[in-house]
Amino acid sequence: MAAVNPDLQSERDGATFDTNKLTFLLDGGEGMTERRREVEAEALADPEVTGGPHYHFMSRPEQYSDAVRKAVHYMKQAKTGKFDNPADAHWYRNTLWPNEMAPIGLHTTMFLPTLENNSSPEQKEKWAPLAKDFKIIGTYSQTEMGHGTNLKALETTATYEPELEQFILHSPTLSSIKWWPGGLGKTSNFAVVMASMIIKGKNYGMHPFIVQLRSLEDHTVITGIEVGDIGPKFGFNTIDNGYLKFDHVRIPRENLLMKNAVVEPDGTYVRIAKNEKAAYSTMIFVRAMIVLEVATRGLAQACTIAVRYSCVRRQSELVPGGPEPKVLDFQTQQYKLLPVLASCYAYWFSGLFIRMTYFQINYEIQQGNIDLLPELHAVSSGLKAFTSYGSMAGIEQCRLACGGHGFSQASGLPKIYTTMTAGCTYEGENSVLYLQMARYLMKSFLQAEKGETTTNSVAYLSKKNLDKCVLGATLSPDTIIAAYEHRAARLVRKAGLRVNALEAAGKPYHEAWNLTSVQFTKAAEAHCHYFVVLKFADTLEEMEDEAEIHNVLLQLFQLYACYGITNYAADFTEDGFMSQEQLDMVRLRVLDLMADIRPNAVALVDSFDYPDHILGSVLGRYDGNVYENLYKWAKDSPLNKTEVHDSYYKYLQPMITGKSNL
Ligand SMILES: CCCCCCCCCC/C=C\CCCCC/C=C/C(=O)SCCNC(=O)CCNC(=O)[C@H](O)C(C)(C)COP(=O)(O)OP(=O)(O)OC[C@H]1O[C@@H](n2cnc3c(N)ncnc32)[C@H](O)[C@@H]1OP(=O)(O)O
Ligand SMILES: Cc1cc2nc3c(=O)[nH]c(=O)nc-3n(C[C@H](O)[C@H](O)[C@H](O)COP(=O)(O)OP(=O)(O)OC[C@H]3O[C@@H](n4cnc5c(N)ncnc54)[C@H](O)[C@@H]3O)c2cc1C
């Protein structure tokens, strides 16, 4: 391995804590870190994983094809049973497709989970092993050209015919064509198709059906089906997001996934699930996973790149006539990066929380106890929106902080950005998800107004909140939490009272709701902000005695919270809760905290523990040898394969010389 750039080494030497120990905390324990590193090391030693053409120097069809090569490699490994632990499989995939979506990504994240959670026991026994063993490859096909958000308006129909005990799948309009499902265009031979179920003329709404799309022999498309790729996108170019059109395609009755609702041979519909949104369960799972696995990890990688690079990059003067400083020593550069780094840690702890909570509550739901489903739906929706937006903005901030080189694909940042920003849209567009959380907040507000006790994430709504902020120079977690509680409670209440007032003035509820929806999305955002602050504080409280790590995490917590207050100053001050003096103090504390954190900046990003291969960044290399590798990168560019490019002979030469050698 090449010698580490002394500018980066000095940062590591000056850190006040052991990065390894912080990595253990982030991974959820030393054993988890060790296992992840083992899986990554095995993958990194495999030329099928790290070899192959350079991602950025391929065309899109080549990128897709290479991703399929890797998919086959993954499936062969998985078939040996070595990834029986889902976490192992996840680490392996992250190393194989760094910041890319695998053509089989939907198979593992949505197709299989839907089969497992929406099938009857017999169906599960039939389909899940086939999918687990990759004998069939599937996707999750829900969104249509005309509707992604409004699931009640999906137009694909599954009409039951009792005589033959079959459903007939049909796409009646242009807008009913399934559009966007990942891996649908070229890779999958099966899909879970969400379609409106019609029995004897009655529409029972969206239900999941398992449908074969292509032959298992030669991959040709099944009669009555039209399927293909939707073309190049802003990112996600290794995956074949597809379209799918049905022309009266017949499937057996048994292909309705019947855990939540059964259709008997004569067409009798029997609902089993207690909650009518049971068919939406896979979306909750993915939203809960996006927080850590997509939003936070994308941001952690961007922070790693930008912080390391900012300690390698020297520019301008700090001391007149003095040597060029590391750019991270400029206060403005710290202001660009350190609050983003603090938010990354904040999101990480919320991500760990929602992942664990999802598995706990889902277990209860599987046992038939659905009491906590509304809470899970609201929190997973809100956190998905809050963290994906924050990460998207943070990644862009990291890119800008890298100056000109940040604009090059060599930085790795454009790819991280385009992959991550899709998470603001897929699995529920962010505003739409905030409005789902807002419904929950409105209900909870009404409960609190009636004097009832609200619980879980909204417990604070029925508490007596402080009228005056008691935040002082010590910035204790309790006073910070109280400030965020006050802000969220006030914004929820204000929006709720306006809905009530509009209704009292004669507006129908739906109109009152729409007229308050901007306020409500801000209230939902404030609620999520509070929740993320709370989970960060909980993590600090639960930490075992690792004083050095506790100190630096406390500084990050305070920075995250103070920066949030300065960014949303009006929310905290306009009702007189926080004084101007307190706000001024908080603003100055942001600057002091940045100075406190600065010496540990590199150690804090090293703790995310990303191998260079996953970062895919010349700027963010662990060894900090940026310039020689930027030069190498440019030399490898396909345009430099020949001294004179073909386009010269085709276009420039005739113009410049009046003759052509072609
Ligand atoms: C160690 C690690 C191991 C882990 C490894 C796993 C790693 C996995 C990593 C995966 C990460 C990323 C992969 C990314 C790939 C994703 C690719 C993208 C896929 C997709 O996009 S699929 C399509 C997704 N589509 C959507 O999300 C559609 C959004 N729209 C909706 O959800 C709904 O239509 C709606 C919620 C907006 C509205 O629905 P509607 O039926 O009209 O209902 P309403 O009338 O508004 O509400 C009625 C009540 O129902 C409640 N409700 C709504 N949704 C749900 C739900 N899902 N569950 C429970 N309850 C729900 C709603 O709140 C209302 O309740 P109320 O009346 O207020 O009480
Ligand atoms: C990269 C990517 C991968 C995807 N993968 C899959 C997949 O595998 N399977 C699949 O089925 N789908 C997939 N999708 C589709 C995705 O789930 C939808 O695009 C997403 O749910 C948003 O729906 P939409 O496109 O209909 O947006 P729209 O709902 O049309 O959004 C447009 C605008 O309208 C606003 N809006 C819509 N409804 C409301 C409302 N009720 N109140 C206020 N504002 C509203 C939105 O906030 C947004 O600003 C994918 C999409 C992308 C981008």
From TrEMBL:
<feature type="domain" description="Acyl-coenzyme A oxidase N-terminal">
    <location>
        <begin position="18"/>
        <end position="137"/>
    </location>
</feature>
<feature type="domain" description="Acyl-CoA oxidase C-terminal">
    <location>
        <begin position="477"/>
        <end position="656"/>
    </location>
</feature>
<keyword id="KW-0067">ATP-binding</keyword>
<keyword id="KW-0560">Oxidoreductase</keyword>
<keyword id="KW-0443">Lipid metabolism</keyword>
<keyword id="KW-0274">FAD</keyword>
<dbReference type="GO" id="GO:0005524">
    <property type="term" value="F:ATP binding"/>
</dbReference>
<dbReference type="InterPro" id="IPR046373">
    <property type="entry name" value="Acyl-CoA_Oxase/DH_mid-dom_sf"/>
</dbReference>
<dbReference type="GO" id="GO:0055088">
    <property type="term" value="P:lipid homeostasis"/>
</dbReference>
<keyword id="KW-0285">Flavoprotein</keyword>
<keyword id="KW-0276">Fatty acid metabolism</keyword>
<dbReference type="InterPro" id="IPR036250">
    <property type="entry name" value="AcylCo_DH-like_C"/>
</dbReference>
<feature type="domain" description="Acyl-CoA oxidase C-alpha1">
    <location>
        <begin position="280"/>
        <end position="442"/>
    </location>
</feature>
<dbReference type="GO" id="GO:0005504">
    <property type="term" value="F:fatty acid binding"/>
</dbReference>
<dbReference type="GO" id="GO:0003997">
    <property type="term" value="F:acyl-CoA oxidase activity"/>
</dbReference>
<dbReference type="InterPro" id="IPR002655">
    <property type="entry name" value="Acyl-CoA_oxidase_C"/>
</dbReference>
<comment type="similarity">
    <text>Belongs to the acyl-CoA oxidase family.</text>
</comment>
<dbReference type="Pfam" id="PF22924">
    <property type="entry name" value="ACOX_C_alpha1"/>
</dbReference>
<feature type="active site" description="Proton acceptor">
    <location>
        <position position="427"/>
    </location>
</feature>
<keyword id="KW-0547">Nucleotide-binding</keyword>
<feature type="binding site">
    <location>
        <position position="143"/>
    </location>
    <ligand>
        <name>FAD</name>
    </ligand>
</feature>
<dbReference type="GO" id="GO:0005777">
    <property type="term" value="C:peroxisome"/>
</dbReference>
<dbReference type="Pfam" id="PF01756">
    <property type="entry name" value="ACOX"/>
</dbReference>
<dbReference type="InterPro" id="IPR055060">
    <property type="entry name" value="ACOX_C_alpha1"/>
</dbReference>
<dbReference type="GO" id="GO:0033540">
    <property type="term" value="P:fatty acid beta-oxidation using acyl-CoA oxidase"/>
</dbReference>
<dbReference type="InterPro" id="IPR037069">
    <property type="entry name" value="AcylCoA_DH/ox_N_sf"/>
</dbReference>
<dbReference type="Pfam" id="PF14749">
    <property type="entry name" value="Acyl-CoA_ox_N"/>
</dbReference>
<feature type="binding site">
    <location>
        <position position="182"/>
    </location>
    <ligand>
        <name>FAD</name>
    </ligand>
</feature>
<dbReference type="GO" id="GO:0071949">
    <property type="term" value="F:FAD binding"/>
</dbReference>
<keyword id="KW-0576">Peroxisome</keyword>
<protein>
    <recommendedName>
        <fullName>Acyl-coenzyme A oxidase</fullName>
    </recommendedName>
</protein>
<dbReference type="InterPro" id="IPR009100">
    <property type="entry name" value="AcylCoA_DH/oxidase_NM_dom_sf"/>
</dbReference>
<dbReference type="InterPro" id="IPR012258">
    <property type="entry name" value="Acyl-CoA_oxidase"/>
</dbReference>
<comment type="pathway">
    <text>Lipid metabolism; peroxisomal fatty acid beta-oxidation.</text>
</comment>
<dbReference type="InterPro" id="IPR029320">
    <property type="entry name" value="Acyl-CoA_ox_N"/>
</dbReference>
